[in-house]
Design goal:
This protein has about 450 residues and is of the alpha/beta class. It contains 17 helices and 19 strands. A 5-stranded parallel sheet has the order 4-3-2-5-19, with helices on both faces. The protein has a 5-stranded parallel sheet with strand order 7-15-9-10-11. A 3-stranded antiparallel sheet has the order 12-13-14, with no helix packed on it. Helix 2 packs across helix 4 and helix 5 packs across helix 9. The protein is globular. The termini are far apart.
Amino acid sequence: MATTAPDIASGRLTSEQYAVNFSDIHPPLGRHEALVEADRCYFCYDAPCVKACPTTIDIPLFIRQILTDNPIGSAETILSQNILGGMCARVCPTETLCEEACVREEAEGKPVKIGLLQRYATDTLMDEKGEQPFARAASTGKRVAVVGGGPAGLAAAHRLAMHGHDVVIYDAREKAGGLNEYGIAAYKAPDDFAQAEVDFVLSIGGITVEHGKALGRDITLGELRQSYDAVFLGMGLAGVNALALEGESLPGVEDAVDYIADLRQAEDLGALPVGGRVVVIGGGMTAVDVAVQSKRLGAREVTMVYRRGPEKMGASLYEQELAQKSGVVLRFHARPQRLVVTDGRVAGIVFEETADRDGRLVGTGATFELPADMVFKAIGQTLVPGVLNGAAETIALVGGKIGVDAERRTSLGGVWAGGDCAATGEDLTVAAVADGRIAAESIHRALSAG
């Protein structure tokens, strides 16, 4: 019987179409627009939006500063709490954080556009001043190792440098930035903003970045503990959850995280191959990002399949709507059962329909098949605990992540952790920044007392 070759191709669109599809999804506010939007804020006392922000930015204050035509001062208010405020303004799910808590959202269903106002302020500072608004304190002579140059590591390093400590960031990749550089949709942070922000953070001085240095491969935790006064672990999650299906290592089955990283680093999007029919398994932000970007690369059909209902998805309602508006089909209550393999590569996937019974997810026995040229796994990432075993002792894990207390201290003396690798409850960029800042202040107190 004749077989059909998989429909995987690059250059499905024109260069102009790629440019449009991957342009800024949220065009920035101009000065007049920012002033008009800022005027909508009630400047609430004990503002609920501040309580909803993981980095507790004084939102009414920074909006009032915009309204008085002081965007530079506004940016300094933001950055004093969240040094990655520019990226967070672009990628944070503000619709489920500060904007959901906005009084105008409750009263009118139309919150103040806090995220866009934050971007207006931080972009103005970076564009007009282009320099660090914070001064580095006199050197303390203390040295801190930071493992991972993502949001948590950068935030920790910056705050430690502010206090005068010398910091060395060990990052496994060629560029710092972590998921901001490698893991989010390209249309959320175009124009190489992630690296511009990294340079902005590092401009405070006192921070050295060692690229291509991975914990457990090039450095060990034991070595770092011996060589530095403190260690902060912010290396994220390197493992990818498996489907546990026969054939998932065959051609056509891809890790969504790796594919997004390749897309983010591609100099020519037209050279990146994508399937004609794409199936994405998962319900989080990564699943949405790879599904929408596949569609914007020219895939004809993209279907996202999640095992539970839409209300249980990790992706926000806004992200779900974005996927649907981009032409992605969302299917719920189905889990992968079997890969369909033809000529040694994936050709489709069989799903079993599911149901929630007494709080448990169960299979119903009913199945359906989706043809696929590419299948993306986007069902979460995991910590690879083996990287921690370079120490004489092992770090206590909680739920498969590094256990930490309220100050982000681990069970090992002199070692703190934050971001996705730590069991802090939220896998968000803004939460990782908060972890880094909290840990840095704790480290500073410990070093100052020592």
